[in-house]
Amino acid sequence: MPGQEHFDPHAILASLGITDVGAIQPVTGGMDTAIWRVTWNGQPYALRLMRPQQAATYEREVAAMQAAAAGGVVVPELVRYSLWEGRPVMLLSWLRGGTLASELLRQPYRIWQLGTAFGGMQAVIHRIPAPPALNPTEWIEWAGDEPELKARLYDLPSRQTRLIHLDYHPLNVMADAGRITGVIDWTNARAGDPRADFARTYSILRVEPYSAEGDDLKLAFFRRSLAACWRIGYQRAGGSLDDMALFYAWAGAAMIRDLSPRIGKPDFWLQSHHLDGIRAWRDVWKKKAGIKV
């Protein structure tokens, strides 16, 4: 998707019937969306522009947010929706506070308080039944070229169909004054087994490469500490999860599938050797699950 500088947020807002806006600031978005912070009637909002082919993604995201809100999770309110040049556009309420990542960088002494709350909120999500609009097995295919791993997941005797976020990490959770204030970016949400969502978050916290140089000692300690606090918070609210090897292997395979298309892209640092740690992590868990490597 072209960078945000290629789009005119005023024209996008006009498609929503909004012309009397104040400040507009670009926000770092994901691979598939452009995001701006917009001030309208004195209140902040998030303006999101998606790819033309993401109409189904929009419908799935709205269904997930509605289910989450009904289950007691604070999510952005969908204020306006339209199409702009064939692209879905959403105007969402701006949740109070900053991302969990920014809050922890600003107040690292809150890592226990916010880290355990971070895990507890994910356990709350996993108690929510998934809406019918979400496919209950689609997440399994994220493993890519892993036929035995996927077959084992499809054959699980008691497949759960709870709401799972599948992008639950410190940049998609909002916090303020030592409390979690909401969860954003439900684009990846599916119906599925909570163990998959737990494993995916763990892989993001522990093994995803964050830079070309790798983690320095301070960041490595911080990541390990946050993962420990998150796990404790989750288990306090949701109990322990069993038979996780298969799901950790899936999370590693899914991360490799996610990141591989970015290798060697212009203006991006990721190279094949940066995924070596994820490959090793995946293979360890495959062996523990009884899958040949």
Strand content: 15-25%
The biggest beta sheet is recorded as: 5 strands, antiparallel
Structural class: alpha+beta
Q: Shape, please? A: globular
Q: What this model shows, in words?
A:
The chain folds into two domains: 4-93, Phosphorylase Kinase, domain 1, CATH 3.30.200; 98-288, Alpha-Beta Complex (Aminoglycoside 3'-phosphotransferase, Chain: A, domain 2), CATH 3.90.1200. The chain is 40% helix and 18% strand. It has helices at residues 9-15, 55-70, 100-106, 111-125, 147-154, 194-206, 217-238, 245-259, 276-288, and strands at 21-27, 33-40, 43-50, 78-84, 87-93, 98-99, 162-164, 173-176, 179-183, 190-192. The strands form three sheets. The chain has a five-stranded antiparallel sheet with strand order 1-2-3-5-4, sandwiched between helices. Helix 5 (147-154) crosses helix 8 and helix 6 (194-206) crosses helix 8. The model has no long low-confidence stretch (mean pLDDT 93).
What's the short story on this structure?
With 293 residues, the protein is an alpha+beta fold.
